[in-house]
Design a protein that fits this description.
single chain, alpha/beta, two-stranded antiparallel sheet, 8 strands
Length: about 350
């Protein structure tokens, strides 16, 4: 006794081949008619066979169930760092609430140029971030700049009470930190890695464990500049890192170094070694390493230099670490880049 699948196949063969044989008799008289008829019959058979093959049915259903595909291209990725600032003196009531804040309101947004506006970048809220990073493993590795990025990301998904409760552990000097945000199923790890060599070791660890994060943000340079002050050596380390970077992490980001305001640096050693000339030498080596996406590499730049430069001296108290608004902007840039790379778009 024939099963449903066998019976369907038998009917399909009858429907397909009997008319084709009959039409073939007239092939010499009208080839176009024959091939058009054969194509129509083949498509009809495929439609009727779809219910008998669950994998085909599932594929069709999955395509129909996608919420939104984003058709923004690589040009938008290259524009995602185009941020502008609106600086205003902070109101008195805000100064009372935030006595340690630099005394200016820092409002930022994406450039109003038509190219940037066409990309429809937007600031994501907690619900949007929960949807985007749901079930993800995010790793942020580097020095204190990276730690400030972690603080800004967590500030967008945790309430103020929980943020206060974790600050002691998050800012424990020269240490790693990890947290699971259960509401969105996101695991976030900060790895203290102030040198590029530390980042290479981290990448090797991922490879050995055959376990890679969904999102990896990394960056290092300031410690090397301070303690080695040798751009060529930094370049060698970057090339070694390049050899360990795996495409198994689908979303790779490089956290750039901030603008350094020499006169505001808090030690004589920093003012001597972290000069503008040395900063630009390190930046050139980074560009030449081809680690960055804009130069053909795997990592999209989170341009802290541009963000801190445009925010300016009013956004820092020590010439190196900037107000939280700078790192919040970096996180929003990262999130918008993730939307583009994963071909998603928010419904507004």
């Amino acid at each position: 006794m024939f099963g449903g699948l066998q019976f369907g196949l038998l009917l399909a063969c009858i429907v397909l081949f009997v008319p084709m044989v009959m039409a073939g008799w007239h092939l010499s008289r009208n080839k176009m008619l024959f091939f058009s008829g054969a194509l129509f019959i083949s498509l009809a058979v495929c439609v009727h066979l779809t219910p008998y093959f669950p994998s085909v049915s599932d594929f069709v259903t999955s395509v129909q169930s996608v919420v939104i595909f984003d058709n923004r291209d690589d040009s938008c990725i290259n524009l995602v760092n185009e941020v502008v600032w609106d600086m205003k003196p902070m109101r008195e009531e805000l100064l009372v609430a935030e006595p340690d804040a630099v005394a200016f309101e820092k409002n930022w947004g994406w450039s109003k140029s038509w190219k940037v506006m066409a990309c429809e970048f937007q600031k994501l809220g907690k619900g949007d971030i929960s949807d985007l990073l749901n079930g993800s493993w995010v790793v942020v590795a580097g020095d204190s700049q990276s730690r400030l990025v972690v603080q800004s990301l967590l500030g967008l998904v945790l309430n103020s009470e929980r943020m206060e409760s974790i600050k002691g552990d998050l800012f424990r000097r020269h240490s790693d930190y990890g947290i699971v945000v259960e509401e969105m199923g996101m695991k976030l790890d900060f790895v203290w890695a102030p040198y590029v060599a530390n980042l290479s070791n981290l990448m090797m660890g991922f490879k050995q464990n055959r376990s890679y994060p969904d999102v990896l943000v990394m960056g290092a340079g300031l410690w090397h500049m301070l303690h080695f002050t040798n751009a060529s050596s930094y370049g060698v380390d970057l090339k070694s890192l390049m050899g360990t970077v795996s495409v198994r992490s689908p979303h790779l980001f490089w956290l750039g170094m901030p603008m350094l305001i020499n006169g505001m640096l808090n030690t004589e050693e920093k003012r001597e070694k972290l000069s503008d000339e040395m900063w630009h030498a390190y930046d050139k080596v980074l560009r030449d390493s081809r680690l960055l996406h804009r130069y053909g590499g795997p990592c999209l730049l989170l341009d802290i230099q541009s963000l801190s430069w445009n925010c300016g001296p009013r956004c820092t108290v020590d010439g190196m670490h900037y107000d939280g608004a700078v790192y919040e902007a970096a996180v929003q840039i990262l999130l918008n880049a993730l939307l583009i790379e994963s071909h998603q778009k928010l419904i507004t």
